[in-house]
Design brief:
Elements lengths: L1 H19 L11 H13 L7 H45 L7 H24 L3 H6 L6 H9 L1 H4 L17 E8 L5 E6 L7 E5 L4 E4 L6 E5 L6 E6 L5 E6 L4 E5 L42 E2 L4 E3 L6 E6 L5 E6 L4 E5 L5 E5 L6 E6 L5 E6 L4 E8 L2 E7 L6 E6 L4 E6 L3 E6 L8 E4 L8 E2 L6 E4 L5 E4 L5 E4 L12 E6 L8 E5 L3 E7 L1 H7 L1
Parallel strand pairs: 5-9
Antiparallel strand pairs: 1-29, 2-3, 3-4, 4-5, 6-7, 7-8, 8-10, 11-12, 12-13, 13-14, 15-16, 16-17, 17-18, 19-20, 20-21, 21-22, 23-24, 24-25, 25-26, 27-28, 28-29
Helix pairs in contact: 2-3, 3-4
Protein name: WD repeat-containing protein 37
Keywords: Cytoplasm, Nucleus, Repeat, WD repeat
Main location: cytoplasm
């Protein structure tokens, strides 16, 4: 009997403790029925004029919010444990491998593969973000959003983990001309229109796509039709129409109209050496509200929504002529659509893992898709009756992008820290291989001089020619350059002010002026 009385007293104390904390966000082992019953008991004991139906609705909504916060909290804890484990393993390896003391350079090399795997995991989580996750933690307010952004310090701020080869930057002039600031989260993709007026487009994890005046840096149009991370943006070859792909499992086609503002004088950015490395903290990142996109015209709904995928749509592009579009998804397929009818024309299957990118040939009906299965595939739609496919296995890790050049080449980049140049007429082996010190993201090749721009996880942007010769590294210092992972690059050779654009997870896009004749002369 004394034992039974003690158990009853303990149960009463536990119940009172649960009541006093029932409105706090917590992780609990109690069942959903117990939790709902406890909340209902509390409301019934309060003096309220709310109808019973309203009270029940509020209880249900608060329960959903609490569960969502719990899930996000648990995910953050698990990711933090993984990061701590990785850091501990790297520290141990740096001290005791083969019983000998590793030099700093050796530790950098050995750690690079592990950190690239971690960066891929974090990028994957972010690109799949949906409205629930992102709206719960806007901007840098905290929670999962703040954790993911801060995590870029692992390979961005800790210079001992990810190395940078300290070679001399080319004397060719590579000047920063304009910064485009207004997104509230990292920017995945950047693109330039092919029609007049020429504007810049950016796709962001903040669920928006923005169009910018290249000359003034002013936001011209905001597209808010997606409810997930916007992972890519491409412009129609002849019309003022954009194609965006999103984590909400759709691709949207939407029309825009822009009126360019009067250009303002551009500040003179002196040429700087890419050797001036300065480490940044989160407070050094541009404020997403600084140049505000809140006052620009907003487009809320698409002309057409392409909805055939069962997973995140990671990229999309227009086929030559603009009458068809192709999308790439994490459901391991790429889809070809008729733009006018939104009907699915072909579903391209064969990849063993999630797709990471897709690209179309500028003059022929060819499509190349890349995947986490370490391959990229070439799809040929030139003959309407035959749709051939070729598989290329030239990398040892995720192929992050593969793009066509104007000629007969394909250039592929990978998390294995290599870029390979292929000849379409003989793709058994690459004709050139570029080896780097960091994972390569979405690459781009200039039309005229065929210069490859490589954006890296370690915040660098490097320029190479098609034979694999390095031409330059864009300046990075405490005054200019990206402060986080660089996600994408895009050339616009004919523009008189900026002929290269890059974007990154520091929530900004940058316009550069590359003196191409001087660049090639240094070669």
């Amino acid at each position: 009997m004394p034992t039974e009385s003690g158990s009853c007293a303990t149960a009463r104390q536990a119940k009172q403790k649960r009541k006093s904390h029932s409105l706090s966000i917590r992780r609990t082992n109690s069942s959903e029925q117990e939790r709902t019953g406890l909340q209902r008991e509390m409301l019934e004991g309060q003096d309220t004029k709310l109808p019973s139906s309203v009270r029940n609705t509020l209880l249900e909504l608060f329960g959903q919010i609490e569960r969502e916060f719990e899930n996000l909290y648990i995910e953050n804890l698990e990711l933090r444990r993984e990061i701590d484990t990785l850091n501990e393993r790297l520290a141990v390896e740096g001290q005791t491998i083969d019983g000998a003391e590793l030099s700093k350079g050796q530790l950098k090399t050995k750690a690079s593969h592990s950190t690239s795997q971690l960066s891929q995991k974090l990028k994957t989580t972010y690109k799949a973000s949906t409205s629930k996750h992102s709206n719960s933690f806007p901007g840098k307010a905290g929670g999962s959003r703040n954790f993911y952004v801060g995590s870029w310090e692992i390979w961005g701020g800790d210079s001992w983990i990810v190395s940078s080869f300290k070679t001399t930057t080319s004397r060719a002039i590579c000047q920063l001309v304009k910064e485009y600031v207004g997104h509230r989260d990292g920017i995945w993709d950047v693109s330039v229109t092919k029609t007049q007026p020429v504007v810049l487009g950016t796709a962001s994890a903040d669920h928006t796509a923005l169009l910018w005046s290249i000359e003034t840096g002013k936001c011209l149009v905001k597209y808010v039709g997606h409810v997930g991370s916007v992972n890519s943006i491409k412009f129609h070859p002849t019309e003022q129409v954009a194609l965006t792909a999103s984590g909400d499992q759709t691709a949207h086609i939407w029309r825009y109209m822009v009126q360019l503002p009067m250009p303002q004088p551009t500040a003179d950015c002196n040429q700087m050496s890419g050797e001036d490395e300065i480490e940044f903290s989160d407070k050094d990142e541009p404020d997403g509200d600084g140049d505000g996109s809140s006052d620009c015209p907003t487009i809320r709904a698409p002309l057409t929504s392409l909805k055939s995928h069962q997973g995140v749509v990671i990229a999309a592009d227009w086929l030559v002529g603009g009458k068809q579009a192709v999308t790439a998804s994490w459901d391991r397929t790429a889809n070809l659509y008729d733009v006018e009818t939104s009907e699915l024309v072909h579903s391209l299957t064969g990849h063993d893992q999630e797709l990471t990118h897709c690209c179309t040939h500028p003059t022929q009906r060819l499509v190349v898709t890349s995947s986490r299965d370490t391959t990229f595939r070439l799809w040929d739609f030139r003959d309407p009756s035959i749709h051939s496919v070729n598989v290329f296995q030239g990398h040892t890790d995720t192929v992050t992008s593969a793009v066509f050049t104007v000629g007969d080449n394909v250039v592929s980049g990978s998390d294995d820290r290599t870029v390979k140049v292929w000849d379409l007429k003989n793709m058994r082996s690459p004709i050139a291989t570029i080896r780097t010190d960091s994972a390569v993201n979405r690459i781009n090749v200039s039309v005229g001089q065929r210069i490859i721009a490589l954006p890296h996880d370690n915040r660098q942007v490097r320029l190479f020619d098609m034979s694999g010769v390095r031409l330059a590294r864009l300046p990075r210092s405490n005054r200019q350059g990206h402060r986080r992972m660089v996600c994408c690059s895009a050339w616009s050779e004919d523009h008189p002010i900026c002929n290269l654009f890059t974007c990154g997870f520091d929530r900004q896009a940058i316009g550069w002026n590359i003196n191409i004749p001087a660049l090639l002369q240094e070669k």
